[in-house]
Amino acid sequence: MGVMVEGVYQVDDPAPQTDAAGRYERAASTIRNWITPKGSYRPEPGRYHLYAAWNCPWAHRALLARAALGLQDAITVTYALPRRTPQGWVFDASGDFADTELGALSLHEVYARHSPAYTGRITVPVLWDRETRSIVSNESADILRMLGQAFDPAQRLCPPDKLEDIERWNALIYPTVNNGVYRAGFARTQEAYDEAVTTLFATLDKIDAHLATSPALVGDHVTEADLRLFPTLARFDVAYHYAFKCNIRKLSDYPHLWDYARALYALPGVATTVRPEIYKQGYFSPSELRNPLGIVPAGPIVDWNAPAQRSLSLAP
């Protein structure tokens, strides 16, 4: 993953990504402004442009909110090519993976437009503001929350009376599941891997048990907590189970969690955000440690269209 230091792009990130015990440590996001009705960034349809990548689970959060809330016309999107290069996330000059907003050929050019002296990692998603010609945020959790609050007056993804429960699930799922698969896949010692994978499946067991008696994570309707969990579920059997050695069980081995995942997939617009073949291209890209030959497996075949027993929707 590339990094910029005082506006200069560097192919190799000098910051260590594991601690002394071999545990993977994710770098914090660096640009965290907020959309508010009276602030510098206001919730105006047509003002914002999203930079995303199909295979990035963090970008998937933003794409899910955009689809679930019907914001496709209000917020446009540029998709990076599925596999990163030495230049990081890059774009074609034309076609489906072209940057229609700024005409950039790499994402680090977008960061340089935001700040010529930018220092930090080059990540998606990025929420770009056309009016100020700047990045609002590159933190996926913030972008998801902003879309759910600023662009939906009913605040269906994060209703105030459910906020405490939503935050409780978020606080459990992020470190043990969303980032937990990476802590397993990027571990540099047996002990670090064992710790991460054990914690990951303990949380999946807990979620499966909860979903035996609850349609969604928080009550009867889909909330932000569900949209934060789903990107990991969408990639689990085709990528994390194999590429990241998260192989104690498959998602499809969990009766309630797998049913719930398919019910989320059946929500209007969600299926358009899921690209299993692209996930495999990304997670099985050449890696000296995980996949030195870069061979992409043919399987598994996951039937996301199999009918779910439960039906999910946003709150009316």
How would you summarize this macromolecular structure in one to three sentences?
The protein has 316 residues and is of the alpha+beta class. The protein has helices at residues 57-68, 107-114, 140-150, 163-178, 180-185, 190-211, 224-243, 255-265, 276-283, and strands at 3-5, 8-10, 48-52, 75-79, 120-121, 126-129, 134-137.
Task: Give an overview in words.
The chain has 316 residues and is α+β, with helices and mostly antiparallel strands. It has 2 domains: 148 residues, 3-Layer(aba) Sandwich (Glutaredoxin); 124 residues, Glutathione S-transferase Yfyf (Class Pi), Chain A, domain 2 (Up-down Bundle), CATH 1.20.1050.10. The chain is built from 9 helices and 7 strands, in the order E-E-E-H-E-H-E-E-E-H-H-H-H-H-H-H. The strands form 2 sheets. The chain has a 4-stranded mixed β-sheet with strand order 4-3-6-7, with helices on both faces. Strand 1 and strand 2 form a beta hairpin. It is globular and about 50 Å long.
CATH topology of the largest domain: Glutaredoxin
Cα-atom radius of gyration: 19 Å
How does the overall form come out from the CA principal axes? globular
Strand arrangement across the biggest beta sheet = 4-3-6-7
How large is the share of residues in beta strands? 5-15%
What average pLDDT do the residues reach? Answer: 95
The CATH architecture category of the largest domain equals 3-Layer(aba) Sandwich
Q: Number of helical segments?
A: 9
Q: Name the helix and strand elements from N-terminus to C-terminus, one letter apiece.
A: EEEHEHEEEHHHHHHH
Largest sheet: 4 strands, mixed
Count of domain modules: 2
- Overall SS class: alpha+beta
Low-confidence stretches: none
What is the helix fraction of residues, given as a range?
25-40%
